[in-house]
Each structure stands twice: as C-alpha cells, then as structure tokens.
Design goal:
This protein is an all-beta fold and 909 residues long. The chain folds into 8 domains: 273 residues, no CATH class; 116 residues, CalX-beta domain (Immunoglobulin-like, Sandwich); 81 residues, Immunoglobulin-like; 76 residues, Immunoglobulins (Immunoglobulin-like); 73 residues, Immunoglobulin-like (Sandwich), CATH 2.60.40; 71 residues, Immunoglobulins (Immunoglobulin-like); 80 residues, Immunoglobulin-like (Sandwich), CATH 2.60.40; 81 residues, Immunoglobulin-like (Sandwich), CATH 2.60.40. 3% of the residues lie in helices and 44% in strands. It is built from 3 helices and 73 strands. The strands form 19 sheets. Strands 1, 2, 5, 6, 9, 12, 13, 14, 16 and 17 form a 10-stranded antiparallel beta sheet that branches. Strands 3, 4, 7, 8, 10, 11 and 15 form a 7-stranded antiparallel beta sheet that branches. A hairpin with a 4-residue loop joins strand 65 and strand 66. The longest helix is centred in the first third of the chain and has 12 residues.
C-alpha cells in the first residue's frame, strides 16, 4: 500500500471516534496498541509484528498509548503516536489519571537513579527494507520548569536490538533517543533552558554541565507543572523534533522497545510524541507529479492539479531518502493520454541521482487536442531495486483536460449620487494567468476600454446602460463573457420643512421645533444653527428679541444640502388667575372629595399649590367639618396668582336616635310587632336586629321573656342602638270565687265573680267571663257580673279566661226573690197584725224608703229599710201619724228597682 493511500485510510478510521481536545490539539485512545504502531508510527520500508504493551499482547486499547492531531496549533508534528505516564488526555490538560503506582524496567533504571512510577513500554519486531531506520520524536514533561536539575527526572528511551547492534541494555540493545550529535540520552536534566527551581548543575547519565543544558533543542511552553501554558500542548516544555536513527541490515529481524516512566513520584507526568509515518527505512525512490502552474482550478468544475492540453505542462519528481552514491530510476508513461496526441514523449525513460541529490524532476509538455470536454489521464510509474534486491514500483497520475471554462465575476453598479464618471470592473479566476480584459457595448464590436476596470459616463437619471466584458486567459483557448449594468438611481432633493412658528411668554419657556426632511438619497442628517443634529430640538429664547430665528440644514448621503428656518416669538403675559372650582357639598363627614384646580391667563403650563398640600393640580380631601381650601397658581413664566378658595360643605345632621316600644307583656307564642322609630341622622338607614333581620319592624313570638336589640346605621356610617324587652310572664293557675243575688223584679238573679287571681290578669277586667245555667242571660253590667232573667232555682257556672287563653270554671248556687207585691194598707193598732209597712225581701236588697203625707211632707226616711215578712229590724208603723193616705218612694238595690205608690193608714182597726 502506498503512503498516500495509507494516510487516507487512517483518517477514515478516526473521524467518528471521541476526541479529547484543547484548542486545536486532539488526542484519542480508541485504537489498539498494535493499530497505533502500524497506522500512526510505521512508514515506508518497515514491516512490524509481535506488538506488545507492558509485556501483554498489543491487541488491546490502553489509556497511556494513543494518537494525536495538532492541526494549525503551532506544534511541529501534525499527527502521530504518543505515549504518556498517565492517560493521553494529559497532553490537552485532561483530568483523568490512569497511573498504576510504582513500576520497574531494567533498561530505564540504567538511564536514571530513583524509583520508577507509571512505566509505559511498547515493543515490536520489525524487518527493514533498507540499511538504516529512523523516526522523529518530541519529548515533553510537566516537570518543566519547576524540577529541572532536581532528583525528579522523568525518563524515556528507545531501545533497538538485532543484528549488528551492540549496547549495554537488555539483549545488547542500544538507546537511540539521544541529544543530537551526542551520546547523551534525552531527559529533563539534559535538555532545558535552566529555569529549574533548584538551579545548579545538571547531572544526567553520561556527564553534565551547568544549566541550561542543550537549550537549542528546548521549547519553552510558558508554564510550570502543567499550568499557564503558552500553547494548547499541556506540558511546561518540550524538545524540538529529534530524529532517532540506527544502521541495520536489510531483511533482518530487529526488536524495538519504546519506554517512558515517571521518576521519584507519580505526581507530574511526561509524554513522548512520535511523528506519523516517520519510522522508515531507506528502501526506494518515491514519486510525485504536479502541474507547472500550482493550484490551477478549472472553472466551475473545480478541477485542481490538472493539466490543460496545449496550455499547461507538468513535472514529475522522483525522491530518494538516501543521498549517498549514484542511483538510477526507470519510469514509464501510460494512461488514456497518448504520446504525440496529448503530450510530447520524453527523450529517455530513466533518471540518474548524482551523489548528494535526493530529487530529480522530468517535464511533460502537453499538446492541444481539440477533443472537447473529454478528460484523459497520464500515469507515471517509477521502478527501483532496493539494497535487498527487491524491485519496488511507485506510481502517480494527473488528469489532462482537453477544454475548460473559468469564471468571470462582475458586479452591477447602481449610482445613488450624482457623479461625472463611474467605475465598472470584472475579475477572472480559475484560468491560466495572465488575463486580457476587453470592454464593449452590447450593440457594438468596438472595444471601448481594456483592463480589469475602467471609468464610464453614467446614463441619464432613471436609466441603465450595459457593458460587455470579454476575458481571455493565458492559454487563449476560449474567451469568457460577462456584463455590467450601470443604473443611474440619483434621487431629487433633499427637501426640508420646519414647524411650528411658535410663541413663548417668558424667559426660560421652551418650544419643540421639528424639521422634516424628504426625498434625497439614503438617510438624511440634520444640522441646526444652534448645534443639535436631530430632527427635533427644544429651544428656550432668552427674551432679548421679539423674534428669534432658527435655521436647519438637511444633508443626504450624497452631500446635497437643503435649508429652512422657523421663528419663535416672545410676548410677555400678565399673572395667571387661580380657579379652584365651585363649592362642593358632601353627604357625610370624612367623605373623599377630589378638588381640581384650573387657571386662566398667564403662560401655560401652570404649577398648582393647594395650601397645606404637596404641589399638584388636584388634591384629595376628607373634611370632617365644613372647610375652606386655598389654591395658588404659578405660570410657566413664574407669575403667581392671588389665593382663591373653594369650600367643601359638610352637613350637620341631628343626632341619630332610634326607639322601640316600651317593654310589654304578652302571652307565650303571641306575635308582637316591634317597630324601630328613627330620628335624626343622614338617612339611608340600615337596620340590623339581633334576630338577623334587616327591616324597620319585625314580628316576634317569644315563648319566654326576650330582650330585642336593633342597631341603625345611616348613610354616613353613624350608628345607634335601642333595646326593648318583651315579657312573657310565668302564670299561676286562675283562682276565683263567685256569688249570686236575686233581683228585686223577681225571676231574675245577679251573678257576679267576687274575686279572681292568677293567669295573665291582675284585675277582674283582665279576664273574660262566660256564664251558663237555667236562665236567660242579659248583658254583663259590670266586670264579672251578669243578670240572669227568667231564672230558675239552681247552680250556675262561670268560665273565667285570661288574655292568654288560660281558664277556670266556678259554680254559683242561686235563689229567687222579688219586691213586686208591695202592701198599700196598714193598721197600726198594735195588735201585731199588719201593724207595720212590710216591703218584701227588704232584708235581701238594699232598700231606701221615703214616706210623704198628702202635702208632700216627709214623714219617714230610711236608707237601710229592713222590714219583710220574716225580719222586722227597721220598719215604719205610722207612729205619730193619724190615719190617712201617704205616698212612698222605694229605691231598691241602689236604684236597680224603684217603686212609688200610696199607703192607707187605718186607725182603730
């Protein structure tokens, strides 16, 4: 496999795997040790096998052996293999550590004294195809710079053994990791710039000297102990590229041991970078072929490094790694390109390398073919015989293009600002320099100018003109065409208008002036004669002039200027008048009122000051009594008004009072209406009874004595309360006694309740009475008294009921008596018979008697006449009277019955 093919495959292998990166340096360890050796270390002339890592088969992935890529990062090697005493991530400041503590290696121990840590060893056998081998490396360490010339001297070595090799190491191996031109192994104490922490003398194996040591092979990376790096390689310092090399015998088997370790401790780590493909043997002549014109691109097809038939030529160069002696290399030409058709065949088919020369080149001259777009190939093969007697062939190829195009780039021109001339230009690329540029008008074959650019007159405003560009490259095989259109887009204007003409009334008063620009080209800029550069400005004339003029200039992007002016007049005014507003009447004390002042006269705007308040046009007040508020106004000129006032009237209401009916007594469960009577206050009353009702009156039906409270609130939130008691008494049983009394008229009897108590009554009139018995009952003549007419002897009943419906029944026995038959003749002869005037039942009834003679003279009176058939306590027997006719007047039972008539008194009977 040739080198270019191998590099391409290696690239494909690493594109899709994770990378550890800092800036543009990347490390990876996703390949086996064996893959890394074969793909990232070995070059031409080497066959390797038996790859191991620390004694184990190399078909494993390990953290401390990986690959690196440092594109554009300033590091000497672009890519290759690397070995570290920790994970390869440390090369880009990765934090992962994969050390395994102390270790041992007999060869490394010969190079340095001290305990080894984190030993990393890669070994393999190889067969060289030449008589020498070499590879390029860079040693780096974080021990730089703090531990230079100290006992901490990290160590590495490249130990080669095999036929013809003699050295002090295992298997007679020799260390080829040496300071150039010396036998001194490369290490921290042998290559440095002497900036160690201890100073003094470096004492590497093989001798030493004052620091610095071999500084010409040292690169200061600007940091210490892995911190503060000057590049994206995370080591304090590293060596310049150094070549390890040895003489070998072609075709023999050799052994290579690459080893590195920390010394003294495992704290600060080191690494070695091996350039990709640099492990080679001087086996053959290599071959390359290129156009004579480098980087030639064929138009839009973007063909690179090709030949143009009849225009560009090629050279192929043969290289040899060893410049000692004379070598001869033979070559042959093949491919679809034909000699005599596409190119002139060289006179000889071999080249000779003189001593000291490593490169010999042969020119290929192409011929114009006229074959159109066909692409042919020219293949060059070089044949050599190496020192082992093997024939080795190197091959390279290059395409031949029989025709091609190349791009010509032009840009149309738009004229925004008036000008006498305008430049048109074009640029060709992708052809063969030099280029010939020719300009013409579309309707003419006359060339008006030559060169990549030229100056032309613009077309009239609003019109366009097109120019044709013809470009011929250095080959002159086929011209390319392009065009440039020139458009005149010059606009009219600009124009400017200012506003407004305004008036001020006092010094310090401001006016906003506005300039409005239109048309013109692009953005417009403004410039006032007072200095501002904005469309709108604020001015304050000083009042020294009646009229102040302001000028503005407007400039477009083409530099065209337009101007205008605006005037501000100064007219002083008299002081303003404060207008506090009309009187306000509130409903309630403490009501919120917003008073808003105004002003007239003077110069607006105004400043308002209400006495006792912060400045402002409006104030919010909550007066508790009628209050007068004062306003003063200051205008924009500082003129001050007289104080003006406005009154907020707060009405004075009569005290809010509420009354309820006097406490009353009712029967259990009786409905009682309680009406709240309100006076005073501001109206809009709200009623709140302790029963939960909200009406002016409520109806209650208590079963026991209750106290009722009503709270009345008016619209001003004034509150008053009233209370009343509805008494429901605890009642005793009704007890009563009754009596009967016959009437003087006969067959009638008076029934009466003589005593009653208990129930809901306190007096006899507090009860109702219902009589039953053997009689016809007339109207009740007095409380608890009734007359029974057409009565019979017997027992009567009276039902006594109080206002609460409680009742009792009392029985009343009765008898009948009357005074209907009054005698009209008496014979007072003292015989005991009809001697006195008997009034029937006068002992039953209260009886008043008056007796008159015929002349109207009262001859007898008694207000307690008690003289009936059985009882004769008070009787009239006409004593001292002679026989005659007398007149009587009877008042029975306090006037219930009245009688009058005559009494004949007979003498001597």
């Amino acid at each position: 496999m040739n080198q270019s093919t191998r590099i391409s495959l290696a690239f494909l292998a690493i594109v899709f795997i994770p990378l550890f990166t800092l800036a543009q340096t990347q490390t990876q360890n996703n390949l086996t040790v064996e893959e890394i050796v074969n793909e990232f270390l070995l070059g031409e002339g080497i066959d390797a096998f038996n790859v191991t890592y620390n004694g184990f088969d190399g078909d494993i992935i390990v953290p401390r052996v990986g690959t690196f890529e440092s594109e554009g990062a300033g590091f000497p090697f672009e890519e290759g293999m690397m070995m570290t005493t920790k994970n390869v991530q440390i090369a880009t400041c990765g934090a992962i550590a994969d050390g395994d503590g102390s270790g041992s290696d007999p060869d490394l121990s010969q190079l340095v004294s001290g305990t080894l840590f984190d030993v990393t060893v890669v070994e393999f056998d190889f067969i060289p195809s030449g008589d020498s081998v070499k590879f390029n490396f860079i040693f780096s360490s974080r021990e730089y710079h703090g531990f230079v010339c100290s006992s901490f001297n990290d160590v590495f070595g490249f130990f080669i053994s095999g036929p013809g090799i003699s050295g002090p190491f295992t298997g007679d191996a020799a260390n080829i990791a040496l300071v150039p031109g010396t036998t001194t192994p490369v290490a921290i104490n042998t290559v440095n710039n002497g900036t160690g922490g201890t100073g003094g003398t470096c004492n590497p194996p093989g001798g030493g000297g004052p620091c610095p040591c071999n500084a010409e092979f040292f690169v200061n990376n600007g940091g210490g102990n892995g911190n503060g790096m000057a590049s994206d390689i995370c080591f304090g310092g590293y060596t310049t590229p150094i070549t390890a090399q040895a003489l070998v015998q072609c075709g023999e088997v050799y052994h290579m041991k690459l080893a590195i370790a920390n010394v003294g401790d495992g704290a600060l780590d080191s690494g070695v970078f091996l350039e990709k493909g640099s492990f080679v043997s001087n086996l053959i002549v290599d071959l390359d072929v290129n156009p004579v014109v480098p980087g030639f691109e064929l138009g839009e097809n973007d063909f690179i490094d090709g030949l143009v038939a009849g225009c560009t030529n090629a050279e192929f160069c043969l290289f040899r790694p060893d410049t000692m002696g004379v070598d001869t290399a033979f070559f042959e030409l093949s491919g679809s390109a034909l000699p005599g058709v596409h190119y002139i065949e060289p006179d000889q088919n071999f080249v000779v390398f003189p001593p000291g020369v490593d490169t010999v080149c042969v020119d290929i001259i192409t011929l114009a073919t006229g074959l159109g777009s066909q692409v042919d190939s020219l293949v060059i093969s070089a044949v050599t015989v190496n020192v082992c007697g093997d024939t080795v062939t190197a091959t390279a190829s290059i395409p031949i293009f029989n025709e091609y195009t190349f791009p010509v780039v032009t840009t149309d021109v738009t004229i925004d600002c008036a000008t006498d001339l305008v430049e048109i230009a074009g640029s060709a690329s992708g052809g063969v320099p030099p280029y010939l540029y020719e300009w013409a008008l579309p309707d003419s074959t006359t060339i008006v100018a030559t060169g990549p650019s030229t100056m032309v007159e613009p077309p009239p405003p609003g019109q366009s003109e097109t120019y044709i560009l013809v470009v011929t490259d250095g080959c002159g095989l086929s011209p390319e065409y392009a065009s440039v259109t020139v458009t005149n887009n010059v606009q009219p204007g600009p124009f400017v208008n200012t506003s407004p003409n305004d008036t001020i009334n006092c010094v310090g008063q401001t006016v906003n002036l506005t300039a409005t620009g239109t048309d013109g080209q692009g953005d417009l800029s403004y410039q006032w004669n007072t200095g501002p550069t904005t469309p709108q400005i604020t001015v304050a004339p000083d009042g020294t002039q009646t009229i102040t003029w302001y000028l503005v200039s407007v400039t477009d992007e083409c530099g065209v200027v337009a101007t205008d002016s605006v005037a501000v007049y100064f007219i002083p005014l008299e002081a303003p008048t404060a207008l506090p507003g009309d009187e306000v009447t509130v409903l309630c004390a403490g009501d919120e009122v917003v008073l808003t002042g105004n002003a007239e006269g003077g110069a607006a705007p105004y400043q308002y000051q209400w006495t006792g308040f912060d400045p402002g046009q409006s104030i919010t007040v909550n007066p508790l009594v009628t209050t007068e508020y004062f306003l003063q106004v200051t205008d924009d000129c500082g003129g001050t008004s007289e104080f003006a006032s406005v009154t907020v009237v707060v009405p004075e209401y009569d005290p809010l009072e509420v009354s309820l009916p006097e406490p009353t007594s009712v029967c259990p469960g009786d409905a009682q209406t309680l009406n709240a009577s309100v006076s005073g206050g501001a109206g809009g009353f709200i009623y709140e009874w302790d029963t939960g009702e909200n009406t002016p009156s409520i109806t209650v039906s208590p079963n026991q004595t209750e106290i009722y409270t009503v709270t009345v609130t008016d619209i001003c939130d004034v509150t008053t309360t009233a209370t009343t008691t509805v008494t429901v008494p605890i009642l005793l049983p009704i007890e009563a006694s009754a009596a009967s009394k016959p009437l003087c008229t006969g067959l009638s009897v008076t029934l009466s309740v003589t005593e009653v108590s208990g129930g809901a009554g306190e007096n006899p009139q507090d009860y109702s009475y219902a009589w039953e018995g053997p009689a016809t009952f007339g109207n009740i003549s007095a409380v608890g008294t009734v007359t029974a007419n057409d009565a019979e002897e017997g027992v009567f009943e009276v039902t006594i009921t109080d206002v609460c419906g409680n009742s009792t029944v009392v029985e009343v026995p009765s008898s009948l008596s009357s005074v209907d038959e009054i005698p009209n003749v008496i014979t007072p002869n003292r015989d005991g018979i009809n001697d006195v005037w008997v009034v029937p039942n006068s002992t039953v009834f209260s009886t008043v008697v008056t007796i008159l003679d015929r002349w109207g003279k009262v001859v007898y009176e008694s207000d307690n006449y008690r003289c009936d058939v059985n009882t004769r306590q008070v009787c009239w027997g006409a004593e001292d009277q002679r026989g005659d006719v007398y007149y009587y007047l009877l008042d029975i039972d306090n006037g219930l019955c009245k009688f009058q008539g005559t009494i004949h008194v007979l003498d001597n009977w």
